[in-house]
Amino acid sequence: MSAADINTELCPVYAPFFGAMQAIDLRRNVAMQHTVRSPHADHLVYSVLDLATLARRINKQGCTAAIVFTCLGASYGTSKSGVGISAMGVLRPDLLIKCVIPVIMAGIIAIYGLVVSVLISGDIKTPMSLYRGFIQLGAGLSVGLAGLAAGFAIGIVGDAGVRGTAQQPRLFIGMILILIFAEVLGLYGLIVALILNTRAQDDALMGCFLK
């Protein structure tokens, strides 16, 4: 409601004040009528909306990278180790259950990506800046690529390890130690991803706060 809609007769004491407000409203309306709208105003609004969409898309890319790359590593490790276990089972079927450990450790890598992907996806619908979007993209890539590398290592070591264990059972302990160090690579990526996700806060210095 503007000052022109106020009935000054109901409160004569404040009539001068309301009169000044009416003059201000009149000047503002005249100024708005003679103001030339900048052609860049609409472009600025659309740019902000595009940045909001871009931030959410980057967030989704981080969520996707976390689960996709870790599952790629887990699938390679499982398949590569499974081939070796199948070949080893022909010679030593009594060691079949004992040598399934590489497959189990390869499957754990996918859990790392699932955890980070769920954490990142929780912020998809919330307002975010490009800063947060890129930080969460980095978190997804950290756990994803680390899990991919760990999966490749587990697959190669598991395949060769179970074949060697079939011929020399003493190699089993050494294979387990190598698998542990290969699994730790994915754990490093998980730790870094969790740290990045917890520190993905909107920074006013980065600008472009999006709603």
TrEMBL record:
<dbReference type="GO" id="GO:0005774">
    <property type="term" value="C:vacuolar membrane"/>
</dbReference>
<keyword id="KW-0406">Ion transport</keyword>
<dbReference type="GO" id="GO:0033179">
    <property type="term" value="C:proton-transporting V-type ATPase, V0 domain"/>
</dbReference>
<comment type="function">
    <text>Proton-conducting pore forming subunit of the V0 complex of vacuolar(H+)-ATPase (V-ATPase), a multisubunit enzyme composed of a peripheral complex (V1) that hydrolyzes ATP and a membrane integral complex (V0) that translocates protons. V-ATPase is responsible for acidifying and maintaining the pH of intracellular compartments.</text>
</comment>
<feature type="domain" description="V-ATPase proteolipid subunit C-like">
    <location>
        <begin position="137"/>
        <end position="196"/>
    </location>
</feature>
<comment type="subunit">
    <text>V-ATPase is a heteromultimeric enzyme composed of a peripheral catalytic V1 complex (components A to H) attached to an integral membrane V0 proton pore complex (components: a, c, c', c'', d, e, f and VOA1). The decameric c-ring forms the proton-conducting pore, and is composed of eight proteolipid subunits c, one subunit c' and one subunit c''.</text>
</comment>
<dbReference type="Pfam" id="PF00137">
    <property type="entry name" value="ATP-synt_C"/>
</dbReference>
<keyword id="KW-1133">Transmembrane helix</keyword>
<feature type="transmembrane region" description="Helical">
    <location>
        <begin position="171"/>
        <end position="196"/>
    </location>
</feature>
<dbReference type="InterPro" id="IPR002379">
    <property type="entry name" value="ATPase_proteolipid_c-like_dom"/>
</dbReference>
<keyword id="KW-0375">Hydrogen ion transport</keyword>
<comment type="similarity">
    <text>Belongs to the V-ATPase proteolipid subunit family.</text>
</comment>
<feature type="transmembrane region" description="Helical">
    <location>
        <begin position="134"/>
        <end position="159"/>
    </location>
</feature>
<keyword id="KW-0472">Membrane</keyword>
<dbReference type="InterPro" id="IPR035921">
    <property type="entry name" value="F/V-ATP_Csub_sf"/>
</dbReference>
<feature type="domain" description="V-ATPase proteolipid subunit C-like">
    <location>
        <begin position="62"/>
        <end position="120"/>
    </location>
</feature>
<keyword id="KW-0813">Transport</keyword>
<comment type="function">
    <text>Proton-conducting pore forming of the V0 complex of vacuolar(H+)-ATPase (V-ATPase), a multisubunit enzyme composed of a peripheral complex (V1) that hydrolyzes ATP and a membrane integral complex (V0) that translocates protons. V-ATPase is responsible for acidifying and maintaining the pH of intracellular compartments.</text>
</comment>
<dbReference type="InterPro" id="IPR011555">
    <property type="entry name" value="ATPase_proteolipid_su_C_euk"/>
</dbReference>
<keyword id="KW-0926">Vacuole</keyword>
<feature type="transmembrane region" description="Helical">
    <location>
        <begin position="95"/>
        <end position="122"/>
    </location>
</feature>
<keyword id="KW-0812">Transmembrane</keyword>
<dbReference type="GO" id="GO:0046961">
    <property type="term" value="F:proton-transporting ATPase activity, rotational mechanism"/>
</dbReference>
<protein>
    <recommendedName>
        <fullName>V-type proton ATPase proteolipid subunit</fullName>
    </recommendedName>
</protein>
<dbReference type="InterPro" id="IPR000245">
    <property type="entry name" value="ATPase_proteolipid_csu"/>
</dbReference>
